[in-house]
Amino acid sequence: MTPTARSRGLKFPVILLGKEKLDSKTIRAFLKQTQYELVLVGNKDVPVLYNGETDDEPLDMIESFGQLGWPDDFMNEINQKPGVNGKAFVILDSTSGQDQSTCLVAASVGDDNPTIDHAKFRCQFSSTLSVLAQLDRGGPADIPHIIRRLRTEAAEAGAVWEMALVDRIKSREAQIGLSKFPPSKDWNTRCPEALPRTSRPYFPIFRSAEISLQTLNEFLESTYCKEHWGHSSDEPDPRASIITAVEPPYSDGPAEPPLKTVPYLPKQFLGTRPHEFDAIVRSVFSCPSNENPEFNYNRYIVMDEMTEKDKTVLIIANDETEGLVVSRSDFKGALLILISSKVTS
């Protein structure tokens, strides 16, 4: 059955964002793929809502929001219009114009975290209705959790939410017995970066797929490039370690290029998803706050099935107020994101 985003006759709004205006052909293609279940809205000078179903609708008159950022005030106004579903909204941006196949889906998470207004992720045109249907089924308190889950799924799928790929990832059976990794009482959201010591805790690197020696070394050489780290020379350099076991010593020590051989990969790691690795991190790497942890238990890297092909890795953080945050990074930016004050997707 084809998913529908319509709730009690309401339609989700679509806005245009970017300095360059999208052509009406791209806009109409998107509205057609979403079966005219959405409505396009413009600035305050265009009070009419269009769904693109008829050729006489002047879609080229809809104004883009340019570089104004999130149009919160306007969206609040639009949500008061009859027929509009205010749980989430869709953005057609410059990337939409370039690839003509993806959009952004965004929803407010500001109710329980005033520092973050919206969570967003990229989605295939053809999968947009499925995503919006999931958001539509949630109540106001559920929306932040649903949008974060969808955002994580998009990162796992290669940075774009595509229904067939996400369904395949979710269908995998967990290889790790999560019951073996109960949360440690010592886990907290402030893993010490550098107590009186000469080095930081290792950022753990997990692998959920077979990664070649060439790719491992390419990643380490790229991410250890100090030119773009931007931290003080007085601070200890970030360092990483490839996890090879769930029992001590957990790894073979610092992961420094060039590696001579591929570190051991536990078979139970194959196909493991971020929330499953997070159970391991919270359970076995946590330590009392007055001790120096060997491994960072708030932030880590996962090399997955996309790593070999796309040269990207998953960056995972469990120390932010919006819950587990999963994003995808190229090799060069991985450590830079981990040492930043905030991980975003």
TrEMBL record:
Official protein name in the record: Uncharacterized protein
Lineage summary: Eukaryota, Fungi, Dikarya, Ascomycota, Pezizomycotina
